[in-house]
Amino acid sequence: MILGSSGSGKSTLATQLGKITGLPVVHLDRLFWNPGWEETPKEKFAQKAQDAANGENWIIDGNYTRTMDFRLERADCIIFIDFNRYFCIYRVLKRRIQNHGKTRYDLGEDCIEKIDLPFLKWVWDYPKRSRKNTIEKINKCDKPVFHLKTRKAVKQLINKIKGE
Predict the structure, then answer these.
(1) Are strands 145-148 and 78-81 parallel, antiparallel or unpaired?
(2) Which helix (H) or strand (E) holds 33?
(3) Mean pLDDT, residues 90-102
């Protein structure tokens, strides 16, 4: 299970780990966003997320706090990418430029890459809005937690999983 701020690299890491391990990757944003950035109703999304977590093996990336508890119960380990807000804002802006006019692989169909001030504020406010709660939840789990605070730590984890 991979958690972290928007722009921290959750989907990228999930995809890399999926290629290394052969495990199926589930991007929660793909389950949540319908064509044209239409949200899936909360109950339907919760069921989709629970169905994914009930699978035998998986890598799931995404926060979605209201579905976090049952994913934490089912996860073998938790990866928390805990980068600072400046880096996450930079990555969001970079992603917007790189994917101009396209739909990213980790989003629902026909969700053309976009950025607006409310989303940037969402990323900026992650440390005070969600970080503490996320840390409290993962600290209560009796599971291995990889708390990654640097890109070097992410690379080291990838190399460890590769067996290097």
Answers:
(1) parallel
(2) strand 33-34
(3) 94
